[in-house]
Amino acid sequence: MKKLKLLLISLLFFNYSFSQNENIPQIKSEDNQIVFHKNYTLSYNESCEQANWVKYMVTESQLESNSRRKNNFKSDNLVITESASTDDYKGSGYDRGHLASAKSFSYSQESIDETFFMSNMSPQEPSFNRGIWKKLENYERDMAEKMDTVYVITGGILSGDLKTIGDNEVCVPEEFYKIIYNKKYDFIECFLMKNEKSNESIDKFKISLEALEEVSGFDFMIK
After folding, report:
1. From 37, 55, 96, 98, the catalytic residue
2. Is 37 marked active-site?
3. CB 37 within 8 Å of CB 79
4. What is the residue-averaged pLDDT of the chain?
5. Which residues are CB-contacts of 77 (< 8 A; sequence separation ≥ 6)?
């Protein structure tokens, strides 16, 4: 499978947002819709009704406050083809798993609320979402505290014959990945985890960038 180049604009998207009435980025493919939110950017895959990837930045200063999580899940009207809905997950047995972590954006109510768009959700086994995946999210914040800033790219592997849930047929990834990096410190760590409960250390799930690019089909353009 040819690697798809990611449109990751490292300086622009962190402070770039679109209102409902503004133009949104041009769609090159329904399965690669680049959507800019204020605090993260994503590539939306219409066929799987979730993001191919989400990229965001976590800084040490972001972690100083703790706004209240309201669980106000909502459709993303910046997705031209419409995002998945909250109803797709009802009765499925899967959590609406965050890709861009809510806690990493708890420095303001606006920022944490932004992480509850359904375009930032993917079906995750509850024991995975609340277990090993949560540990990995905590780890990204630990690294932000150590290095002041880290960049994160994350998503599910959306290939193969995947199970779907809901009327919109949201794909259930069998694996999830996360890349945490800071070029200033020459730091990069990649993780690939099965969508299942695990009592292992997160170190057990480390994978090289090259191997992850092969599995995901993306060139993450961070070498």
Report:
1. 98
2. no
3. no
4. 88
5. 20
CATH, domain 4-219, list 3.30.420.40, 1.20.120.910, 3.40.570.10, 3.70.10.10: 3.40.570.10
Burial class (CB in 10 A: 0-12, 13-18, 19+), 51: buried
Closest-CA residue to 219 (of 43, 97, 99): 43
Q: Show me where the domains of the chain are located.
A: 4-219
Q: What is the DSSP letter of 68?
A: P
Q: In this predicted model, what pLDDT tens digit does every residue of 77-135 receive, in sequence order?
A: 999 999 999 999 999 999 999 999 999 998 999 999 999 999 999 999 999 999 999 99
For residues 72 and 15, give the distance between their C-alpha atoms in angstroms, rounded to a whole number: 23
The pTM of this model reads: 0.87
